[in-house]
Design goal:
Mean pLDDT of chain A: 89
CATH architecture of the largest domain in chain A: 2-Layer Sandwich
Oligomer: homodimer
CATH superfamily of the largest domain in chain A: Bira Bifunctional Protein, Domain 2
Order of helices and strands of chain A: HHEEEEEHHEEEEHEEHHHEHHEEEHHEH
Strand order of the largest sheet of chain A: 6-10-11-16-15-14-13-12
Radius of gyration of chain A: 27 Å
Low-confidence stretches of chain A: 1-33, 210-215
Number of helices of chain A: 13
CATH class of the largest domain in chain A: Alpha Beta
Distance between the termini of chain A: 40 Å
Number of domains of chain A: 2
Strand content of chain A: 15-25%
Structural class of chain A: alpha+beta
Largest interface: A-B, 145 and 145 residues
């Protein structure tokens, strides 16, 4: 897309010269580092030949000085493992300590048998920013996730958070790829809304004390932060057939466990002209399969970092990507399985038709009974929201949850009621103010279509493929009851 | 990536049969419609041969019934122009009206010389959802943008909003592509924050009246919605070298003009190990050039829809993508130009060194003097935020705004102060509570690097390439003082 003559250098930033001088532009990976930015370690390791003189920049992860030689490990976040720096003259290691930012010039050499395939024989090291060894909180040793959470501004340099961050980036890319390949249009649904889709009463409300307009009246009505973009997506599905979003959602959930965040990312999709729940299941399954395959192809070493000592996790990732359809049962069958579960399996809550599935039930189904992803469909209407399409049995609705080992509930969706009168009846039956949803119900007046959609918690997806227990370690800046550090 | 055997059909939804039956899988565009979803009109027009039997679904845009023939136009949001349906038996048009949702079976035919290259000779039309012609608000005629704003749930079906929506989708894709090709990592910065980066006092604050935890105390402190993800991005730039976000930002801006939204999308980026402002300018310029080129390549007809009767806009899009560097002047030079502007140019505010540039000044520079994009760099320190890096002159800071015809200020950025002591002095001088920024300033203790970044308003970018005057027409669900419809 960029003609190569566009790679003009308008300036010669300090850190570029050495690298550029040592190779021709045509030998570069043309997908990378077209601008006057320094290439990342990943780029250098993947594209530069050994023997090349390179200049790298990054942060020191560890230093080891011996009598006649010194070693350091440098990272810049582009690879799971940093690159080893060999200093044949230990004097050039003077002043180096963990956490320093450095620029290093040297010769790229192969490093067979080590974690990283290449290393650098350093000629010069320039310390850009010091890090006091007495106070720098991140040492080579293994830190607990709790400790890392307390140093939120430094933890991105830790191996675990660094791998999570790259996986988030690649997983999002994989999701966009999946949706665009299947002709979905991305819609930017709002964060501020007058609608509380789930009706759970856990929405954050807005205040604007500093504004010139009276506090409660900036928008002329009460507004809250979105708990789901579904209803807004349905508006656009009525014009674009297939739409999706990738947005933040918010819940003022007072729970202090590691399962909930007050602010999290969701991918939601809506498809018009869809009559069968099975088609939605196919879209969902293929979304997860292709996104996970994208991670295997583009972030394999980060995935392996989490699964190498975790056999069930490795098996799960394999299961998510293989061709075998995910298991699928109805809610009624699920209740039956749970009621007949191994007598040793003692549930705190008795599984009973008409009641929601508890976490312990979901965990049993996904992690034990099916030992893999399982769709549970057709829940009782009474425990589901107003917009779901009733099944002909008059008791259940055409909906699904996808349960997986790890986060349990990964995804939920349904066909939506597309008939105006039936929708209005359902709204009333759920005790919701009909007028507040005029904008939504009136879609059924003008070219309504059978349709459906779903939402997947992005952090839960990442939690699933990393096996991390606490969702606070999945998002860059976790927000939860009592915690909003910065 | 998907082996073709994965295209198993787990179900046969109503709308697929006819199309699938009429072609082999190998003749499909393998990038599209892998699942059991109906292909879009765009897909059919681009990949199906004339003479093929097709089944399409969409919404009627217009109907014309004559004695022996009837015509209808159908759209599904995938193309700027719908497809023409020819009914040789006018009886099958019975009941059709603008706004209906339909399924149509027929034979694809070429349609030379018309707006759309293909049309459909209909065999059968099935009306899925009616639209009362008496009340359906969107007719074939041209509606004003003000009127469309009042029918926010139907306007996505209008040609203008439909084109804007596709351009948003493609522009976002182009941005992700640019950043990933240049080894930036996407960071999901928070919406809820205890920090007010710009210090403008226009942040929305949160309340949680329904929560079990006392109202002001859900997070144990006052929090607000983010006005910029910059400071959070800097945290990650200190570990990943180059990072970006694509997030919502929020301003409780009481202005009632068409230039501001209370909720809007921004793309922001931070680069570590960058000493020269010129390098940031290069990244910014190339981001805009490559994203606009991506639109030209992937949404050309939507761009043309806006520029075909707007010669200056066509020229601007051309200018944004050509190889000639964007104009670049210092703030001091800008003041000089403004003070010597054509005497006929009467400014309401006198341009004076030390004062911010007014909109009228920016408009003069971009739309009149340079007639294209122009970077203005090195503004006086006093009118800029605490984090910007001072220039050696002691009076200005190393920053830039990019001004363009249309929205004027498109983008702003700077090098950031990377020295701990100087940053702390600046924070005090700006009257900000030092302790509240400990998490940010302490980044300078541990391997600080010269760095910088910028932010671009996404709606302003779309406004620029569409020439639309009111920013409320750029975002799916506009929020502004007094307005939050749903």
């Amino acid at each position: 897309m960029f003609p190569s003559s566009l790679f003009r250098i308008q300036n010669t930033p300090l850190y570029r010269k050495a690298v550029v001088g040592s190779r021709s532009l045509s030998s570069c990976n043309t997908n990378k580092t077209r601008l006057g930015l320094t290439p990342t370690l990943r780029n250098i390791i993947e594209t530069e030949a050994t023997g090349t003189e390179v200049t790298i920049s990054g942060w020191i992860k560890s230093v080891r000085v011996q009598k006649r030689i010194a070693f350091a490990e440098v990272s810049d976040g582009s690879t799971l493992r940093g690159i080893q720096i060999i200093m044949n003259d230990p004097q050039i290691a003077a002043g180096l300590s963990t956490g320093c930012s450095v620029e290093i010039k040297g010769i790229l050499a192969s490093s067979p048998g080590r974690e990283q395939s290449k290393e650098i024989q350093a000629n010069s090291i320039y310390i850009i920013g010091n890090a006091d060894p007495e106070t720098y909180p991140l040492q080579k040793k293994r830190h607990s996730m709790e400790f890392l959470r307390e140093i939120g501004n430094i933890r991105p340099r830790s191996q675990t958070i660094s791998a999570v961050t790259r996986l988030r980036d690649r997983a999002e890319t994989g999701l966009h790829k999946f949706f665009h390949e299947n002709e979905f249009v991305r819609i930017h649904t709002p964060a501020i809304t007058a609608n509380d889709c789930e009706g759970g009463g856990e929405a954050f409300q807005l205040a604007t004390p500093g504004s010139k307009i009276p506090e409660s009246d900036f928008f002329g009505r009460k507004v809250n932060l979105t708990v789901s973009g579904q209803l807004h997506l349905e508006v656009y599905a009525n014009a674009f057939k297939r739409v999706y979003n990738f947005n933040q959602s918010f819940r003022a959930e007072p729970s202090q466990t590691g399962r909930h965040l007050s602010e999290f990312w969701m991918v939601e999709a809506e498809c018009a002209f869809v009559r069968k729940l099975a088609l939605l299941l196919e879209v969902e399954e293929q979304m997860i399969r292709s996104t996970t395959q994208y991670l295997v192809d583009n972030a394999g070493s980060d995935l392996e970092f989490f699964s190498q000592k975790n056999e069930p996790l490795a098996k799960l990732v394999q299961r998510l990507t293989d061709r075998k359809p995910y298991a699928q049962i109805t809610y009624t069958e699920a209740i039956d399985i749970l009621q007949n579960a191994d007598p040793l399996q003692k549930f705190a809550f008795k599984p009973e038709w008409g009641q929601g599935l508890q976490s312990e039930h979901e965990r049993y189904l996904a992690a034990k009974h099916f030992d893999g992803p399982v769709f549970v469909t057709d829940y009782p209407a009474e425990i589901k929201p107003f917009y779901m399409l009733p099944n002909p049995d008059g008791k259940t609705v055409a909906c699904m949850d996808l349960l997986v080992p790890g986060p349990c509930e990964l995804l939920g969706g349904s066909l939506r009621e597309h008939n105006l009168e039936r929708l209005q009846t359902s709204i009333k039956a759920h005790g919701i103010d009909e007028n507040s949803l005029d904008w939504y119900t009136s879609l059924r007046r003008y070219g309504t279509t059978p349709h459906g959609g779903f939402g997947m918690g992005f952090e839960r997806y990442i939690q699933m493929v990393t096996g991390l227990e606490n969702i606070r370690d999945i998002i860059p800046f976790p927000r939860y009851a009592g915690k909003c550090l910065c």
